[in-house]
Queue: 2 jobs
Job 1
Amino acid sequence: MRIFVPKEIHSTERRVPLLPSGAAKLVGLGIEIEVEQGLGVPLNCTDSLYEKAGAKISSDRAGSMATADLLLRVRKPSLDEVDLLNKGCIHASFLDPFNERELVLRLATAGVTAVSMEMIPRTAVAQKMDVLSSQANLSGYVSVIIAATDANRIFPMLITPAGTIKPVRVLVIGVGVAGLQAIATARRLGAAVEAFDTRPIVEEQVRSLGAKFVKADLGETGETVGGYAKPLTPEQLQKQRAIMTQHIAQADVVITAAQVFGKKAPIIVTTEMVRQMRPGSVIVDTAIETGGNVECSRYDEVAEVNGVRIISFANLPSRVAANASEMYSNNMSAFVEHFWDKSANAFLLDFTNDILKQCVITHAGKICNETIRAAYG
Ligand code: NAD
């Protein structure tokens, strides 16, 4: 069995799916690892470091893709790349299967076993391979650093002979993994932080980070069995906006990180609400990849409304690519190790396993994932 790790070719992608440490771990399991020449270039990680870890270097990307048994990547393949893949191979990457119907169908037709890393369940046993958590954690951190750099005021309180400076007021909307890290980062910088989430269970976590939880009675909200938020009804969302308006108007910085798994992100901050903020305030919309939480967000751009800057950069983890790659690489090597059958020298595709049941999308010519089949109707 041979694993191939191709270079990420998307122009803005600086993350590397497998670092030499990850390669060494897999080589230690007896797996043949091949990486594309220059794989680690974005992180100044040379081919010789991969060779020292026991990996082979390939200068034939297409040839190695066509013969690999398992491919590890950050980004989904292009349609053309799917045509190259070996029938029966396993392809593990982010896949965005809810929105990539054509790609998923192509993977099924090509007989590829496609693993969508974002579909790994959020359970204790799967935590080590949970790429959503590792990358969202960094998104939360980066969002606050971007806001702190862009804002025209400092985050902490300062008492000086030249006057007392009040701490910046940060509002975090959506307290999943990204939101929690945003709160923690803003607190470390000395900000006064408020936060809101539709899952009531989050209140205690917000408080434990020294932030204030915004109370809002939206009626029954709750969460799914998998721990994800349930979508709000239009009436609930309207009520949320009404409650949030005042908090948003008072904030110097708003970080939005509200998502509903498998669905477009809810629009929580309307342009009218942005107009009520003080000029000079900053919003960072971390939910932009799924449509954004702010009505006037522009994908990978900075919009400006009435002196308020709305920053919606895509792929925030790539801005801290060294750590993002370290965590992603650990997630990927843990994923392979978890299912590696040493005696058979093969990745064990056991479809009674709960993790694989949820993250394998296509297998043996079919879309085998129940959630995705239901989503496609
Ligand atoms: P996510 O990215 O899907 O959503 C981000 C947050 O947005 C969630 O907290 C959600 O409740 C919130 N949200 C949705 N609609 C909202 C709205 N209208 N207003 C405000 N907030 C809104 O979440 P995530 O970070 O991927 O985490 C999903 C779940 O997985 C959480 O329950 C988390 O605790 C859990 N989790 C478990 C583990 C584990 O046990 N191994 C690891 C990581 C995450």
Job 2
Amino acid sequence: MNEPIAARIDIGGILDPRSVAVFGASDNTDKFGGRIIYYLTRHGFPGHVLPINPNRDTVRGLPAYPSIAAAPGPVDVAILAVPPQALLDAVAECAAAGVGACVIMTTGFAETGDAAGAERQRRLVEIARASGMRIVGPNCMGLIAPRAHMALTSSLVLEIEAIRQGRVGLISQSGALMVSIFNRAHDAGIGFSACVSLGNQSDLEICDVLDWMIDDPGTDIICLYVEGLVDGARFFRAAARAREVGKPLLMVKTGRTEAGVRAARSHTASLAGSYRVFAAACRSLGVLLTDDPDGMVRAADLIRRWPRPPGAGIGVLSPSGGGSGIGVDRVSEAGLRVAELCAATKGKLLQVLLPPQADNPIDLGGRRSGDSVGVAGQCAAIMAGDPDVGIMFIVLTTVPFYEATTKALAEAALASGKPVVVAVTPGSAADGPRRVLREVGCPYFDTVDDGLRALRLLTARHESLALPPAAERPAGPAPAGPPPAAGRLTEPEAKALAARYGVPVTRETLAASADAAVAAAAAIGYPVVLKGVARALVHKSDMGVVRLGLADAAAVRRAFGAVEAILRGDLSVGAFEGCLVQEMARGEAEVILGIRRDPQFGPVVLAGMGGVLVEIADDIEVAPAPLSRAAARAMLGRLRFWPVLAGVRGRPPLDVDALVDAIVALGWLAVDLGDRLVDLEMNPVFVRAAGKGIVAVDARGEIAG
Ligand code: ADP
Ligand code: MG
């Protein structure tokens, strides 16, 4: 095997190069190369710029070279937006000339999805790997390095006067999204430490840049737009390290939906993992997932300013009843918590507000005294001072003395040191207040939705600060028994395995004959359930081999004969192994519990609404195993189905504690099975009223060799 060639340059070098060669550079800004060199020189890059163009002596007053070989070297970075047919030769010339890294905007590689594109990309990487030259792209939009006054992109978003410097790092798989995010952020006054688009990640990939940003002293917080990860395990190692060094990681990941998965595949040639498992793993590492790239960067700016929101309770304040009503409704609908003001806070508010308004939300319309500006400031200060208020949310509708009131509200809220989010609801009528908010340095959004996204991420950040509760093995003797054999598990085998870990299952006996079934039924007590057992059997009731509510020996005998006939008549289900006779169980709700090993993220536990509607309900939560009781409970709490477990509309609260026990136990089973676990699923698990326990009535599973 060849020795791996050492890289000629690292990410830091690429973001702060001494020299940059621009292929196809010209004075014509209608051309890619023309725009690249224009933006590179316009924003004051202090390094050496080398235009490569066989048809020009000079470009923008700089001496041009007919080829990279003819240019004075060594060149740190070359940027190429040349036509696809010329690209490989150009890259080979760069490698021969000792170029450190090529930033390749050219398209037509693995993202095409065809064999020719994949082959072109393979050759590209081969050239790079043989020389130690690095590649950013292809199919990217370059990079922007504000600290080096360097824009290496053809995007017209660089028409701006100056590149803002900042402390937010941006890594985007999509080039087009990177530049549009950059542009929006610029307009919002947010600067970056570096913006890098990776395109097809053919050589340098997202995690290379991420690892660099985690160590970069100029980056405080990192935003990622990801379609597919080259190495999921590496990403989670990086995320854990970001958490250790205290750098928040925000992320938009496409591939959340089936359509998104297709888009992600065709876009950049990398496969999206199962989003649910991914999201669960992110949550456990404090990675803040969101849905909108611009919103992500706006929120990053807030979290950079308030990295430790003191609580998740939200104080809602508005100059109007409409604003406070909308604010509080939307906050609770978003699953966020409306803070509960303490008696002392309410007492202070009562001195300036009328009784119905002296609570959360505050409607400033109901004030006692006439000094509306003064009262606004007082109320904001009092509310923000409440111990349960972690974040202030001001819904700024119009109000008399608009600018003065805005100033008073914002200054008083900011003085608390807690995060403040303002949603400015009017249009141009609020341009003055917007200016005031900018002057006092108060973040604002133009829609309640955008404000809510920021609130959600601030809340998630607060929650991520709490150390995850340690997963501890339940007390008692360690589960004992022989390791399960490889292959599919029948219902009784899967249940027996779960039962070793303390998961309650139906009392049952596998009977090989009708006589044995009758004897088993007598021992269990009527009525009983009888189910056919065969190894490759999947949906038992669909095949008519689940017989419920059998009341006597004659019924058991008849059921046995019928089920045996069905199974012996269908070779696809495997050999008939007998009938399972089990107690007839009862419950108030049906839940699905399962474990599986994700190839990228390892063992996970899932829980959700169970029964025959499981696919339609699609109400499933996932968490990495092992997990603590607190994590198991939180997982149940995130289900839409949760109110059924908690007790609604006169229904009794159900035995959540027993469910939590089972989830924790299954997590340990998943851990102990290790690589041998494919999956194990129990559907349904009957949940009874609080204190009355749960019981798994069905189970299936598969074990690897
Ligand atoms: P499958 O899912 O393979 O069709 P199940 O064993 O889940 O078969 O049985 C189908 C349904 O029958 C269950 O969803 C449940 O409602 C009911 N059932 C199964 N076993 C029992 C039992 N022991 N007690 C009460 N109901 C049961
Ligand atoms: Mg079932």
